[in-house]
Amino acid sequence: MSVSAFTLISSGIRAGDIPGQPQPDIPDQPGKPVPPQEPGEPTLPDQPPPAPVAQCRPREVFERCAPPAERIAGEWH
Questions:
Q1: Measured between alpha carbons, how far is residue 30 from residues 44, 45, 47, 55 in Å?
Q2: Alpha helices by DSSP H, the chain
Q3: What's the pTM?
């Protein structure tokens, strides 16, 4: 690595100095319109409804699927 490249890296390169990178100090980027926010309007874009929450299995279904612990312990002795 040459001395000039090392000096450039050690002096710090801001993201705005690199072509093709967004300017971090400019809040409004061209091509990204920000709609005005009305009071009480959600700040997030439209999102799909939340996924349904899985219900716990009824106890009788669980007991039917899992043998009692005593029977499992008895099989290994």
A1: 20, 19, 25, 47
A2: 3-10, 59-65, 69-75
A3: 0.14
